[in-house]
Amino acid sequence: MFESAELGHSIPKKEFAKREAELREALLAAQYELLAQKKTQVIVVIGGVDGAGKGETVNLLNEWMDPRHIITHAFGERSDEESERPRMWRFWRALPPRGKIGILFGSWYTDPILWRVQGKSKTAEFERYLQDINHFERMLVDEGAIVLKFWFHLSKKVQRKRLKTLEADPKTRWRVTDLDWQRFKQYDEFRAVSEVALRETSTGEAPWTIVEGTDPNYRYLTVGQHLLDALRDRLSNAAPPPARASVLPKSALDGRNLLNELDFSGKLTKKAYTRKLEKYQGKLSLLTRDPRFANRALIVVFEGVDAAGKGGSIRRITGALDARHYSVVPVAAPTEEERAHTYLWRFWRQLPRKGRVMIFDRSWYGRVLVERVEGFCTESEWLRAYSEINDFEEQLTNADAIVVKFWVTVTEDEQLRRFQDREKTPFKAFKITAEDWRNRAKWQEYEHAVCDMVERTSTEDAPWVLVSANDKYAARIAILHTLCERLAAAL
Amino acid sequence: MFESAELGHSIPKKEFAKREAELREALLAAQYELLAQKKTQVIVVIGGVDGAGKGETVNLLNEWMDPRHIITHAFGERSDEESERPRMWRFWRALPPRGKIGILFGSWYTDPILWRVQGKSKTAEFERYLQDINHFERMLVDEGAIVLKFWFHLSKKVQRKRLKTLEADPKTRWRVTDLDWQRFKQYDEFRAVSEVALRETSTGEAPWTIVEGTDPNYRYLTVGQHLLDALRDRLSNAAPPPARASVLPKSALDGRNLLNELDFSGKLTKKAYTRKLEKYQGKLSLLTRDPRFANRALIVVFEGVDAAGKGGSIRRITGALDARHYSVVPVAAPTEEERAHTYLWRFWRQLPRKGRVMIFDRSWYGRVLVERVEGFCTESEWLRAYSEINDFEEQLTNADAIVVKFWVTVTEDEQLRRFQDREKTPFKAFKITAEDWRNRAKWQEYEHAVCDMVERTSTEDAPWVLVSANDKYAARIAILHTLCERLAAAL
Questions:
Q1: From CA B17, how far away is CA B22, in angstroms rounded?
Q2: Is residue B248 part of a domain?
Q3: Which label site among A94, A294, B55, B327 has the fewest CB atoms less than 10 Å from its CB?
Q4: pLDDT in tens, A232-262
């Protein structure tokens, strides 16, 4: 794999000067066009061996183009805020919005490769990381980003020479640390592991470009030209990336589904409700104060039909919690900044630290519910959202979060009764809008979407809980009871 | 000051039940109105002695109202990301946007009071913190926020009893820690210091409300009712808060000012420029790699007339830096999210960690330049911005940041020449718009605004550097030279 990057590629000084002048002008023009179109973001991943000129190349890209519209991130040690959230959180923080170029110096590849080289992770784990990366990058590309990955390579001989040369010059000595030499001792392992990583993650949508780092002129032009080609290709190409075709199975032949099989007969008297409410709120309160919870996070998702009583259920949960430890996030239309990022970005930015409870009132499932039914996104977008969401939630549970998801629903008749009741009561009238009636008219389509959603995203670690809420008391108790059970089992 | 909060205020259970029912309905209605108007944010600061029911009260407010639109923050230890930035950064992160209620449990008062009690700060320092707080809160109120401050008080006797009672009950024992008892030993000092803090910060725009914490019913209703009154008052009151009148002195009688006295004769040959560029870029490069810089941050502000060459100067700076250590922030119109916050919020969110360089291409000075001249803000807004900006920059320098501000300017004739040149050159044409011509027509007004700005915001720690840029080479060298000097002096 690295053979062609050990050939001793080089570009003569004179040719470089000529090509550089053309290249930088073209890159700058392409950068402004990218900024003007604001349709795509460019994510440049930089990896490779030490001393191969990664830093200089990134600096030069910033010099060739307008550094005001390039966001360069270097990833060192995790900050405490980063280490309390899923591994990928720090990268989501660093993703550029559409129109900009983000250069990630060190990236999601650094840790998996180093851990494997140092023997901190086993092969199976390593392979799993690589698969996660493939999913992540596919998501980025599906959302319209250009992902360019450059691997800077040096042969062992050249690397040794390079480190020695840097060390000999007083002006560059600071750049060579003991760590560099330590790593150099592991050159062979590093090379072998990197080769696997590059092979497994060189996908159609985000292939690696291996850059021989020996000659500066060669590596600068290679990276710059490849970036330019990718930019030009996308900028001139008005067509969106091809959708991956897929067909969802139709509803079952006998018409039975999860929702219409739901039992709506549960009922609680006010007295029994009050007693049970106190009991489960007390339990929940103790569970979230359990010292073991300090190393976990609880993420609760509420989805449901209009007027099913989500808000009331949320208040019964927060009533048991300490306001210092929970937040409720009402999910509405995305803001301008959020729209400039990939779909899941706005949920990543809301992820809780450890020891906290985050309640989402509507959530990332909007894409496969309202956005699907109302046509706010394309079919290929909501089709791929199922696996993107599963990946996302898997990362949450891997980072020790407990994910609980409720679909709160009432029967069509009951919803009608509640709508009419709301319209009659002045105090509640603000809760009902024309949109609620419009949504109601699409009951069947929503039911179909919900069944697909539950079928495709109810996982072992983050299962859906369907709550029949014709009786508000019974629904609230069922929700509190479930939360207590899930928490108790997880701690 | 605390006398009236030691009277043993209480509300009988029956009266509480009745008033609570009315209050919560009214609070909820007011909260939704606040959300609908989206014109103001409510900032509730909670402070006081331990065991006085702060936590319970905040929990109850969340229960009475819709917790989805309340953002509660508790401030514990600073995270590493917080401790590398100015003290107030963590609070700016927690400020609610317009339409929402933010409850700050523990706040900017906690540290100054504790440090004074523990003898970690002297009186003068303490007084200085309190003045900083007054400036900060005045800014919040001027920007349209409602700031409500509640101090929960218990007499020494009652506090001892309260802590003992909590400790006796297995259900509440977890809430009393050794730290609470340790603090109790310092009750008298705490009371004395708090009294000074409350007196000095009980301003007209953000007065303290002292709440006796003995009787739960009393404290709940007191806080709830006060919040309701404040909300109703603002919601019904369409008029903006009264502007503080102020008159700026007119230009000097002899017509001389900082800008028209500027010397534009400086010139550099290309050869001299190339030599000096290399020299100062090398210096700058070494300075930012100096180990002492790891504990500082460099914040560079660029303002100037159109076509004065800000972009080119910025590129000459970044050319000397490592892309991993700097960012350039181009400041354009604020986003939707930024507009929902107080003016300076969008700059606070961009503050660099230590060891980093942040270059602002246009900045917070927009308010006293373009916004003033174009009438995008009111007169009282830009008038008060001078001191808000001075406060802001003082916080930056206090947090060990080095702040360097450049006003880059050319003569009117030279600007005309450059505009015409840009229009003729296809490659540069995108850089010139009708807006540039419109700005040019207001040359005198801008000149006046710039003179006011320099006069009012050029401080010892963050002075303005006026750069005459008719000769681009000389200007760039002057800028690099200044940066090197300032850095060398600061390290």
A1: 9
A2: no
A3: A294
A4: 988 887 555 555 444 566 666 667 788 888 8
Please give, rounded to a whole number of angstroms, the shortest distance from the CA of B135 to a CA of chain A: 27
Statement to judge: residues B232 and B279 lie in one domain: no
* pLDDT classification of A117: cutoffs 50, 70, 90: very high
The CA-atom distances, in angstroms, between A62 and each of A17, B328, B339 are 17, 11, 30
Rounded Cα gap, residues B392 and B398, in angstroms: 10
- Does residue A252 sit within a domain? no
Residue A40 one-letter amino acid: T
One domain for residues B232 and B274: no
> Rounded to whole angstroms, how far apart are CA atoms B138 and B132?
10
Model confidence at A175, in pLDDT bands (50, 70, 90)? confident
Judge if B275 and B211 occupy the same domain. Answer: no
Contact predicate B134/B159, CB 8 Å: no
Considering the domain architecture, whether residues A305 and A430 belong to the same structural domain is answered as yes
User: Three-state DSSP class for B192?
Assistant: helix
User: Could you tell me if residue B257 is inside a domain?
Assistant: no
Domain CATH number, residue A69: 3.40.50.300
Q: How many helices (H) and strands (E) does chain A have?
A: 20, 10
B89 and B231 share one domain: yes
Of A32, A69, A427, the CB nearest to B430: A32
pLDDT at A7: 80
Point out the domain boundary residue: A214, A236, A258.
A236
* A212 lies in the same domain as A284: no
Q: Are the C-beta atoms of residues A266 and A478 closer than 8 Å to each other?
A: yes
* Residues A212/A215/A217/A219 CA torsion (nearest 10 deg): 20
Tell me the residues of chain B between 27 and 56 that have a Cβ less than 8 Å away from chain A.
Answer: 29, 32, 55
Inter-chain touch B79–A74, beta carbons under 8 Å: no
Rounded CA-CA distance B352/B288 in Å is 14
pLDDT of residue A431: 73
CA dist A181 and B109 (Å) reads: 49
Please, what sign has the CA dihedral across residues A471, A473, A475, A481?
A: negative
Give B280-314 pLDDT, tens digit per residue.
999 999 999 999 999 999 999 999 999 999 999 99
Q: What is the pTM of this model?
A: 0.80
In a shared domain, residues B160 and B280: no
- The pLDDT score that the predictor gives to residue B251 is 66
> What is the model's pLDDT at position A240?
54
Q: How many CB atoms lie within 10 A of CB B487?
A: 22
CA A94 to chain B, closest CA, distance in angstroms equals 12
Domain boundary among the residues B236, B255, B282 is at: B236
Structural domain contains residue A140: yes
Query: CB-based contacts of A124: which residues, under 8 Å, 6+ apart?
Result: none
B3 touches chain A (CB under 8 A): no
- Residue from A25, A324, A339 to probe the interface with B (highest B Cβ count within 10 Å): A324
Residues of A106-129 as b/e, b for ≥16 C-beta within 10 angstroms? bbbbebbbebbbeeebeeeebbeb
Q: How far apart are CA A337 and CA A316, in angstroms?
A: 32
Record: contact B55-A323, CB cut-off 8 A: yes
Quote the domain boundaries for residue A329. Answer: 270-490
Q: Identify the segments of chain B with pLDDT beneath 70.
A: 238-254, 426-427, 429-430
| Bridge partners, residue A104, by sequence | A45, A73
Other residues' Cβ atoms within 10 Å of the Cβ of residue A38: 12
Pick A4 or A375 by higher pLDDT: A375
Domain total in chain A: 2
Q: Provide the β-strand partners of residue B300.
A: B359, B404
**A87-105, pLDDT tens digit by residue?**
999 999 999 999 999 999 9
- Regarding whether A177 and A291 lie in a shared domain, the answer is no
Contacts of B216 (CB under 8 A, 6+ apart): B53, B56
